[in-house]
Amino acid sequence: RSDDFKKALGSAAPNVSVIDAGSVLDQVGEVLAVLLAALKGLAWFCVAVGLLVLAGTLAMGHRERRADAALLRALGAGTRLLAGADLAAFAAAGLSTFLLGAGTAYGLGAFLSFRLDIAFSPDAPGLAALLAAALLLPRRWAWRRRRRPTGRRR
Fold first, then answer.
1. Contact call for residues 128 and 76 (beta carbons, < 8 A)
2. What is the C-alpha separation between 35 and 41, in angstroms, rounded?
3. What is the mean pLDDT of each run of 10 residues along the chain (154 residues)?
4. Among candidates 113, 105, 1, 99, which has minimal Cα distance to 46?
5. pLDDT value at position 151?
6. Distance (Å, rounded) from C-alpha 96 to C-alpha 53?
7. What is the pTM of this model?
8. What is the pLDDT of residues 50-91, one digit of tens each?
9. CA nearest 122: which of 31, 29, 40?
């Protein structure tokens, strides 16, 4: 039916070019899907880098935390209290990192979807996994550091 229409239009108006807009839009949709997948991969790479920066930040403050723990222990604080304080501080750092990263990503995603006039839906399982990583990885790191023998002092 479409071919008959193109032939009739071509014979009635020989100077008119017929372009199949449906196939062009399908190709544009495929290109956008590839670009969005690449953008999503880049976003997850940025998340991984952010988690590494968070781990590095926690590692850099290790000496200060040990000095604070020694002072608090001298003042009578127990191991449970010190461990709880460390875990709460690490959870707060992870949560603030998650909120900053997720809020920025959500805002940029919403802005891009508005500007490109495409549908936007946050990846709920991805956000849940990111929140779990941001809360649990610093705690696991702190627990591992606390249980590790200290060895010699330099």
1. no
2. 10
3. 79 80 86 84 79 75 81 86 81 82 82 81 82 76 57 46
4. 105
5. 46
6. 13
7. 0.56
8. 777 777 777 777 778 888 888 888 888 888 888 888 778 878
9. 40
H/E/C letters for each residue in the chain?
CHHHHHHHHHHHCCCCCCCCHHHHHHHHHHHHHHHHHHHHHHHHHHHHHHHHHHHHHHHHCHHHHHHHHHHHHHCCCCHHHHHHHHHHHHHHHHHHHHHHHHHHHHHHHHHHHHHHCCCCCCCHHHHHHHHHHHHHHHHHHHHHHHHCCCCCCC
Token pair 């998650």: residue: 98
Q: What is the CA radius of gyration of the chain?
A: 28
Tokens of 64: 């200060």
118: left (phi over 0), alpha (psi -120 to 50) or beta: beta
pLDDT at 43: 78
Q: CA 15 to CA 120: how far, in whole Å?
A: 42
